[in-house]
Amino acid sequence: MKHTACPNCGKKDLEEFFTIPNAPTQSLVTIKNREEALAIPRKDIVLTFCNSCGFIFNGEFDTSIDYYTQGYEDQQGFSPTFVKFITEVTNRVIDRYDIRNKQVIEIGCGKGDFIRLLSKLGNNRGVGIDPAYVPGRGEEVEGVRFIKEFYSDKHGDLQADLITCRHTMEHIHDTKGFMETVKSSIKEADPVLFFEVPSIVRILDIQAFWDIFYEHCTYFSPGSLARLFRQTGFEVLDMYLEYDKQYLFIEAKAADGISEKVHPLEESIEELKAKTKHFVEQINIQLGEWRERLSGFKAEGKKVVVWGGGSKSVGFLTQFADLDVIEHVCDINPHMQGNFIPGIGKQYVGPDFLEEYKPDVVIVMNSVYMNEIQKDLAGRGLHPQMLGL
Ligand SMILES: [Zn+2]
Q1: Is the Iron keyword given for this protein (predicted)?
Q2: Which residue in 225, 245, 246, 247 sits closest to 236, CA to CA?
């Protein structure tokens, strides 16, 4: 399945710049046995750059696979570090746009953690829409309801003062069509859009190969995201990077006509293209260093575990599966424990397991959590060598 036109701007001046061959097509699906986990189909991720708008996407993304209705685990709220961060971000947006006693919509609400928080902190009423929603995961919040469906034109009657969409657009191939659906849903109300995606800039700058995986078909930079918003009839109010520059936030409103306001965070198409070149030059060095490090651990007979399941661990382990160094992947999300990792075939364990396993090395999939994890391990009498991505 080759996409010959840019999903953001429709132009055809595209350039492939990096391929991850044979990546498992799913990383967060819940699988209960090893054989099934290893049988997950594999396909190439072909990072493609649009010379017309600077958008980066998987040019061979298979849009025919059912990614989100077969059990999908993506909750982050089990980490105190994350809860503190998301509470601060939410309070800020509530204050900025006075989102109190208002109506809010969340597109791609997952298990509903964020819309519950937004509603509680601002005394708002809300609707969360997501095909991967699971009832009963989280407290009941008055005035908050859920629709277990993909967002589409049929939800256009829902009106809101704030439309939020966090960590969802990177899973959407038809980005322009999606933004046009959001735009056409806006009628009498004049909502603020509050969207969040991973930033490709950091991935390119530090060669964060573990952040490239199949379910992410779309990789935004501040420039490409803002250009898409303007092109589909929105005006960018603000943009910023958070969480060690991993997450890119955008605040926007429907514009009269095409907005020409450019935000200072936006990079040019040429600047982003230069970053893709740098990434390609550096990535093999980075992969080689990890390979050498892991082979060294194996030679020394060290017990190595990965802390942090989900897509990052699949993205990381896919590169080194042949070395067979890493025995276990630990995650604090109790809904992941016992599941088998797609494409890798290992079973997730909880932190309790590490007490008896006593790892020599722990590789942390997101350094933002380094202190939290080190403290947890120390509390269990464990003091392994810690490495962070
Ligand atoms: Zn484009």
Answers
A1: no
A2: 225
Chain centroid to CA 199: 9
Distance 56 CA to ligand 1 centre (A): 8
Helices (H) and strands (E) in the chain, counts: 10, 16
Q: What is the pLDDT of residues 288-309, one digit of tens each?
A: 999 999 999 999 999 999 999 8
Has residue 78 got a pLDDT over 80? no
The full set of domain ranges for the chain reads: 14-58, 80-271, 299-388
Cα–Cα nearest to 104, from 81, 80, 129, 83: 129
For 43-52, 132-141, 237-246, which range has the lowest pLDDT when averaged over its residues?
Answer: 132-141
Q: Do domains 80-271 and 299-388 have the same CATH topology?
A: yes
Q: How far is the CA of 210 from the centre of ligand 1 (A)?
A: 25
Q: What is the pLDDT of residues 361-388, one digit of tens each?
A: 999 999 999 999 999 999 999 999 999 9
H or E element, residue 281: helix 269-299
Give the per-residue pLDDT at 72.
62
Is the model's pLDDT at 121 over the cut of 80? yes
Q: How far is the CA of 228 from the centre of ligand 1 (A)?
A: 9
pLDDT at 29 over 80: no
Cα-only R_g, the chain: 21
Superfamily of domain 299-388: NAD(P)-binding Rossmann-like Domain (3.40.50.720)
Architecture in CATH of 80-271: 3-Layer(aba) Sandwich (3.40)
Half-sphere exposure (Cβ direction) of 175: Cα atoms closer than 13 Å: 29
Distance 4 CA to ligand 1 centre (A): 11
- Rounded mean pLDDT of 12-41? 91
Q: What distance in angstroms lies between residue 217's CA and the mean position of ligand 1's atoms?
A: 14
Ligand 1 centroid–CA 15 distance in Å is 11
